[in-house]
Design goal:
Its main location: membrane. The protein is α/β, with parallel strands linked by helices and 378 residues long. The chain is built from 12 helices and 12 strands.
Length: 378
């Protein structure tokens, strides 16, 4: 076979191999930008700082420059100013210049674009209550005023680390919307039975969805729309819904297959424990079946080793912290409420909820679950 043909084939093979290698590098960079760097401009800026630091060291050694002049040259190159007072003289230096110019400029451009997009999107959402939100962590759905209370507790629990979006109806009173906005909650108004409303809230990126409508009918309708998106996600979000009646709870849990159903009477401190721990929510949900009401009782440690108990709006002393049992709390709560109250469980943390027996000792700062029967004590 002719020698020239062999050389052409060898060159073709090398080009194909190089093409596969470049494609692999391209896909890796694309994954890096889309999964890690492309999420926030801060990550891109950190990447850019590391990039400048590494290539400044390399360029300084190759071109025999001091470190300051190398950083100066890279920054001037990335920003496309190009004064021309420092130029590469070696072949490797010129290759580094090409890599720095392409990679650095593209990274800086993307970072500035993301920063501008975040500022403009937030301004539009604050002004119009519309648009599309990027990176939703928690999605509140419904028209109930309880959404504001839940948003406030979520904000206290997570701080500013999570993005909370409230999808509600245009008929929701402005005072609730303003209260939610003051907590840093994004507002999306629209028809709760249309999927487009949820896409505007970027439902495909949220981790948890809390449905808190003003009725079981609204909760079921919203849950059906939300559940229709599950098949489009690799990792579906946890869906939590409030319920107002035992029938609504049964429909949401058995027919709609909502992950966690929480009775509306648990909107309060216990609801946050339920939200953080689905097992706790299921336990409390089962506990409420067949009982007229659930009551939240908080123990608070005071001075001189005394413990106080808060039931509703009343705070009363219990005694010393080493002598408090569930039965004692039940009797005192029954006396305060004028009803029959039985302490049945305590929630000490998001992963620690347990049933209580009458003679179990309690600790200060416990959150207790009690069953209250409305029949008056005779």
């Amino acid at each position: 076979m002719d020698q020239s043909v062999l050389k052409v084939r060898e060159l073709t093979y090398k080009l194909r191999k190089l093409n596969r290698s470049l494609r692999s590098v391209y896909l890796w960079l694309l994954w890096l930008y889309s999964t890690i760097l492309g999420r926030t401009p801060i990550m891109l800026i950190l990447f850019l700082v590391a990039f400048v630091w590494i290539f400044s060291n390399i360029y300084a050694r190759i071109e025999h420059l001091n470190f300051f002049n190398a950083i100066y040259w890279i920054i001037i190159t990335i920003t496309t100013v190009g004064y021309g007072d420092i130029v590469p003289h070696t072949m490797i230096g010129k290759l580094i210049a090409m890599v720095v110019a392409i990679t650095g400029f593209s990274t800086l451009t993307v970072a500035l674009s993301l920063a501008a997009h975040n500022v403009v999107s937030k301004a539009i959402l604050e002004r119009e209550g519309g648009g599309k939100v990027r990176g939703t962590n928690i999605l509140l759905v419904g028209t109930s005023p309880a959404c504001v209370d839940i948003a406030e507790r979520l904000r206290k629990l997570t701080g500013k680390s999570s993005r909370i979006v409230w999808v509600t109806s245009p008929e929701t009173p402005d005072k609730y919307v303003l209260n939610a906005r003051s907590l840093g909650v994004m507002i999306i108004k629209g028809d709760l039975t249309h999927l487009d409303t949820y896409y505007r809230a970027d439902i495909l990126t949220c981790n948890k969805i809390i449905i808190c409508g003003s009725s079981d009918k609204e909760n079921v309708a919203s849950a059906l729309v939300v559940k229709s998106v599950e098949g489009k996600r690799i990792y579906p979000p946890t869906i939590i819904s409030l319920s107002y009646t035992s029938q609504g709870e049964k429909i949401l849990s058995e027919l709609v297959n909502v992950d966690v159903v929480v009775p509306s009477k648990l909107i309060g401190g216990l609801f946050m424990e339920s939200f953080s721990d689905p097992v706790a929510a299921m336990f409390l949900s089962a506990l409420s079946e067949g009982h007229p009401n659930l009551l939240e009782i908080k123990l608070m440690e005071g001075p001189l080793g005394l413990v106080f108990m808060r039931v509703g709006n009343k705070v009363v002393p219990l005694g010393r912290k080493d002598n408090i049992t569930a039965e004692r709390v039940s009797k005192l709560a029954s006396k305060i409420r004028g009803t029959k109250v039985y302490v049945v469980a305590r929630v000490k943390s998001v992963m620690d909820i347990e049933p209580l027996k009458p003679f179990d000792y309690l600790d200060p700062n416990d959150i207790l679950v009690a069953v209250e029967f409305k029949s008056e004590i005779t």
